[in-house]
TrEMBL record:
SUPFAM superfamilies: UDP-Glycosyltransferase/glycogen phosphorylase. PANTHER family: DUF354 DOMAIN-CONTAINING PROTEIN, DUF354 DOMAIN-CONTAINING PROTEIN-RELATED. This is DUF354 domain-containing protein. Gene3D superfamilies: Glycogen Phosphorylase B.
């Protein structure tokens, strides 16, 4: 079987990477199409997954909307070459729309209830939407719920073993306390109308980080551009090591 998988976020790479390896070992042909967003491309390269890039993530909502026809066209061209029997994504409207043009099934593996706009563009062209049983929305007859979570696909003990060497990279001894703080950009399409921390100034963010330092080192990961004064909290962690960093942390805020 020829399967085309569309990824548009680093988490999508983790979700599908073990399935890709298993499907290939079983003799299936797997092609991957990717949108360049955050560390998505870096992860694909790290896991030696060949891919075709069909778009770049945009921060401004209007730019995202204007990019839709181009992404659809780029993905359609790639898919026409691949000639897939089925297209799989996490709910990509591009993958769904291209599947309809090619006349092949599209299966979506979603877990984000707030992605309402994306769902409206995806569901009409999708054959099945598979979500964890905890997903509280009802997406209709195409909705299939399963007892599990996306994270099990890459954090189950069969696939993941923590590596304590990550502590050396942040200057922490095993057993010492540290916290991770993540500051999102809030520019994704599913972030429209949503909000996170109520920080209004960089000073408020700094005050919060300094408060957390009472309980140990603070490691900051951010999608935002911050002043140089925040550099002491930012460490150059290889993108594929983020789960090791989370495993040994005492607190995650994000």
């Amino acid at each position: 079987m020829r399967i085309l998988i569309s990824v548009g976020h680093p988490a999508h790479v983790h979700l599908f990477r073990n399935a890709i390896a298993k499907l290939r070992s079983d003799g299936h042909d797997i092609a991957v199409a990717a949108v360049r967003k955050e560390s998505t491309i870096a992860l694909l390269r790290h896991y030696k997954i060949d891919y075709e890039e069909f778009g770049i993530d945009r921060e401004v909502l209007l730019q995202k909307a204007l990019d839709v026809p181009l992404r659809d066209l780029n993905l359609l061209r790639f898919a026409s070459d691949v000639k897939p029997d089925i297209i799989v994504s996490t709910g990509s409207p591009y993958a769904a729309q291209v599947s309809k043009v090619l006349g092949v099934p599209h299966i979506a593996f979603g877990d984000t209830e707030i992605a309402r706009t994306v769902a409206k563009l995806m569901i009409p062209f999708t054959d099945a939407i598979c979500t964890p049983s905890s997903f509280y929305m009802d997406l209709g007859q195409k909705h299939v719920k399963y007892n599990g979570y996306h994270e099990i696909a890459y954090l189950h003990p069969n696939y993941y073993k923590p590596n304590a060497s990550i502590l050396d990279e942040i200057g922490i001894k095993q057993g010492e306390s540290y916290s991770i703080v993540r500051l999102a950009s809030w520019t994704s399409s599913h972030d429209v109308g949503e909000s996170g921390f109520g920080f209004k100034t960089f000073r408020e963010i700094m005050d919060f980080l300094e408060y957390l330092e009472k309980w140990g080192k603070v490691v900051l990961t951010t999608e935002r551009v911050l002043p140089s004064s925040f550099e002491r909290y930012v460490y150059k962690i290889p993108t594929h090591r983020i789960h090791d960093l989370l495993y040994y942390a005492n607190l995650y805020v994000g």
